Amino acid sequence: MESMYPSDEEELQDYVKSAPFDDKVDLTFRKIEQWIDHWNGNVYVAWSGGMDSTVLLDLVRQVDPNVPAVFCDTGQEYPEIRDFVRTGTNVVWIRPERNFRSVLFEEGLPLVSKRVSKRIRILKEMKPGTENTIHLYLTGTNTSGEYDRNAKLSAKWRHLIDADIKVSEKCCDELKKKPFQKYKKETGRMPFWGLRIDEGGERRILIHKPCNIFSKRWGRSTPIQFWSDGDIWQYVRGRNLPYCKLYDQGETRTGCMFCAFGAHLEQERGENRFERMKRSHPRQWDYYMHNIGMADQLKLVGVRIGDEG
Question: For the chain, what is the mean pLDDT?
Answer without folding.
Answer: 91
